[in-house]
From TrEMBL:
Coiled coil stretches, renumbered: none
Superkingdom per UniProt: Bacteria
Protein name (database record): Carrier domain-containing protein
Residue ranges annotated for the Carrier domain, each copy included: 4-79
UniProt lineage: Bacteria, Bacillati, Actinomycetota, Actinomycetes, Micromonosporales
InterPro entries from the UniProt entry: ACP-like_sf, PP-bd_ACP
């Protein structure tokens, strides 16, 4: 999946799920301070990202997510880890 596509999809979800109206966004925006996320809305965002990208539960990975860039990086990291695992025969 191209890097830009991941960033665009993550940004779209982050903005759509933001508790406050957001105009322009940039990678350094802090989810809590700049976008109004609280612990519940962060959990909801985590669920949206898991569903959008077909991710396994990312609880541990999500603890370090503070900014929009962190969310993008986390999705890339999880997708890369999934791609690098050997496939098991069905």
């Amino acid at each position: 999946m191209p890097e830009q596509t991941i960033a665009d999809r993550v940004r779209r979800l982050v903005v759509e799920a933001a508790p406050i109206a957001v105009g322009r966004v940039h990678a350094g925006m802090v989810l809590t301070d700049d976008l109004g996320y609280d612990s519940l809305s962060l959990l909801e965002l985590m669920g949206l990202l898991e569903a959008e990208f077909d991710l396994p539960p990312v609880d541990g990975d999500f603890r370090s997510v503070r900014t929009l860039q962190d969310a993008e990086d986390m999705v890339r990291r999880v997708l890369d880890a999934r791609r690098s695992r050997p496939r098991t025969p069905a």
